[in-house]
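Handout, section B. The chain below has 207 residues.
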Amino acid sequence: MEDIAASRAAVPVVCYFDPTCPFAWATSRWLLEVERLQPIDLRFQIMSLSVLNEHRELEPWYREFNDRAWDPARVCAAAEVLHGNTVLRELYTALGGRIHVGRNKDYDAVITESLDELGLPASLAKAAHTDEFDAALRASHRAGQEAVGEEAGTPVVAVDGTGFFGPVLTSVPRGEEAVRLFQATRTLAGTGAFAELKRGRGALDFR
């Protein structure tokens, strides 16, 4: 009976995301699909490509991307501090839907619209352009890095307490495919010898 109960228990999963990262978006939507189909205890945490790369020499286009990525991440950090962790799920969905599906890169507009959609205080938008909540952002980012055990980009996913970079997805698996991928991910997470698995990336498709 204990084995049956354990197999049905919700698997703890933490998704560390940067709102501007398209690969984190695909992974997060996959996890939401898994949550719809089987018991998982899914929680979202902010991480930051801006923090990760702030002292690195980058190609000009990627430096610009990272410098602009502060804004949505800081708003997420402020929202979590002032309104609790549970607000991140819907805020991320509102921000990410506009950024990755709607392809809106005007982050000021994206932030304003997202806060309005969720009925969150418009004053949270001010956090985008200050470092007031950077300590909280850095602490959450650091937790994601510690889960992996080394510096890693986004997404970072922790399954059953084991963190890793990825899985990196170029589209969102649905239905049985989503569940099969999660089961495989859980198997890899539970295998102490497993370290890395990678192949070339295709074109992004979030339809």
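Note. The longest strand covers residues 11-17. Compare this with the example in section A.
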